[in-house]
Amino acid sequence: MTNEWMKDESLKDIEPYKLEFLQALVFESSNLRKEQLLPFFMAVAKRGQEKNISFSDGEINAIIDVLKKHATPEELEKMNKILSMKAQRNVRH
Question: In 3D, which of 11, 28, 3, 24 has the Cα closest to residue 64?
Answer without folding.
Answer: 11
